[in-house]
Design goal:
By secondary structure, this protein is of the alpha/beta class. It is 34% helix and 26% strand. The chain contains 18 helices and 24 strands. Strand 19 and strand 20 form a beta hairpin.
Length: 502
């Protein structure tokens, strides 16, 4: 639907003057949002801007303090998420709401099973599931267990579940975070099909290239307020970034000029089964070594072997020329090696603990005496990192799970900075993080290597790999398939060729 047609039709969804506060935090300040039929609206903003809160209001998980929601021009009030679903709203969060031990069919019809005289009509459910997948142009076995599906297949199941509930408004929250490029292309095909059927879609993403590829319009939130909406044709990347962060970012990847030192971390013939096979490399002081490859190439598995999270079959790890005995993460930490994990929610943080406690976990030795934690010292030390990293947190006892993704990542960074690690492994350091927070993390990485540390950066984002690395290693099926030293004169296509070669 073009803008002229939209202006002549009533919006499918209107959110007017939405306000929401939590103790000590004004999350939303009079936010307006409009979605038309057959439209993809990109909802953008930095971490903590209010996007998730606004969608939880739309989804019935939060009750607004003020404001109205209209669907097809009729004011709607939600008491529960079920009310929102009944009104035709479906939200697919980053963390899927599927039960891994149940089949695809059982997840699709959970809570609204097809029955006859008290018996499940499995055949009928199976036929309905197959019809949904055929409509979406995908092939998924309705009787497969959800835990056996790939991330992209689970996402398709979530979308199918929304369609089976007659959703008219579909929210996709960071839908491409764990997808390959081919899977993203397939997702976009499904989105285009849903548009053609008259659904209104809200697409939340920090990947601006995706926004320009799929969105019709953009709405931007900043600090809980709506700061602007525009057709995608009226924007370019620089304008959009300025709108999101409230300032110009002069360069996406901040430059550095550092003289590299002697080798600091050396890995020789590292192997584990079929996932990591005879991997060798070194990283010098002051160097950022990029490690990339397709999903399943063995990047994260290599990092976990270095950090002692998995047991290696063979191989030697040296620090400043001395071989290390690393059989557990505590051995790596004692050797001043830190790892920022790929999944901060399950491996980097304990979400139900406070941000102060998360910061202190790997640093208990320096914050304790005679078996007791010196909370005063811990609080003071953490406060310095809150200021240094500009962590947006109302107080140090805030649960880590209540922070935005970017601020969670900063907490993980803070605990390793407090260890004064010489070697830092950053696995997908900016996944799910907005452009402003990305820039801050890139600047911090530059500061760390300027202090003589070294960084192994694993990333699936090729612009990030090219923009931040001094050298690049590419993996394929557990092996190093290529090394790139002339990074400024290397293209994304050249990296992909190495990533796909046998």
């Amino acid at each position: 639907m073009n803008p002229a047609e939209q202006s002549n039709s009533s919006p499918l969804l209107e959110m007017r003057g939405i306000e929401k506060s939590f103790p000590g935090v004004k999350a939303l300040s009079g936010v307006d949002l409009t979605v038309h039929r057959g439209e993809v609206l990109a909802l953008l903003g930095e971490n903590g801007a209010g996007k998730s809160t606004l969608m939880k209001v739309l989804g019935g998980a939060h009750q607004p303090d003020r404001g109205t929601i209209l669907i097809d021009g009729h004011e709607t009030t939600y008491a529960t998420p079920h009310d929102s679903q009944q009104a035709g709203v479906s939200i697919i969060y980053q963390e899927f709401n599927l039960i891994p031990a149940l089949t695809v069919r059982e997840n699709l019809f959970l809570g609204r099973e097809t029955t006859s005289r008290g018996f499940l009509r499995r055949r009928e459910e199976r036929q309905q599931a197959q019809a949904l997948f055929e409509r979406m142009g995908v092939s998924i076995d309705p009787e497969a267990l959800c835990r056996d599906l790939s991330v992209s297949q689970q996402q398709v199941v979530e979308i199918a579940k929304a369609l089976s509930q007659d959703a008219r408004i579909l929210v996709l929250d960071e839908p491409s975070a764990a997808l390959t490029n081919a899977e993203v292309d397939r997702l976009f095909e499904i989105i285009q099909d849903l548009k053609s059927r008259g659904l209104g879609l809200i697409y939340i993403s920090h990947r601006l290239e995706e926004v320009f590829a799929i969105a019709d319009r953009v709405s931007v939130l900043r600090d809980g307020a709506h700061v602007g909406s525009a057709s995608i044709d009226e924007l370019n990347k620089d304008k959009l970034i300025t709108l999101m962060v409230g300032r110009e970012l002069t360069e996406e990847f901040p430059a550095r000029n550092i003289t590299l030192g002697e080798p600091l971390l050396e890995v020789e013939n590292l192997s584990r089964g079929e996932v990591v096979k005879d991997v060798s490399f070194s990283i010098r002081r002051g160097e950022i070594l990029g490690l990339t490859g397709l999903m399943g190439a063995g990047r994260t598995e290599t990092a976990r072997l270095i950090f002692g999270a998995d047991k290696r079959d063979s191989g030697v790890i040296k620090l400043a020329g001395e071989a290390l005995e690393i059989s557990h993460p505590r051995d790596a930490i004692a050797s001043r090696i830190g790892m920022l994990t790929e999944d901060r929610k399950t491996q980097g943080l304990i979400l139900k603990h406070s941000v102060r406690e998360n910061f202190g976990l790997p640093n208990l030795q320096q914050f304790s005496a005679m078996g007791f934690i010196d909370q005063k010292t811990e609080t003071k030390e953490f406060g310095t990192y809150v200021d240094r990293l500009q962590v947006k947190v109302p107080h140090q006892e805030q649960q880590a799970g209540h922070l935005s993704g970017g601020n969670q990542q900063k907490i993980v960074l803070a605990k390793w900075l407090a260890r004064n690690c010489d070697v830092l492994i950053f696995d997908e350091p900016t996944r799910g993080i907005d452009v402003g927070a990305k820039h801050e993390i890139y600047q911090l990485m530059n500061e760390l290597v300027a202090d003589g540390k070294c960084i192994l950066m694993i990333s699936s984002e090729l612009p990030e790999v090219l923009g931040m690395s001094d050298r690049i290693l590419v993996m394929h099926h557990g092996k190093i398939s290529g090394e790139i030293s002339d990074v400024p004169n290397t293209s994304q296509e050249q990296i992909l060729e190495l990533a796909m070669q046998g």
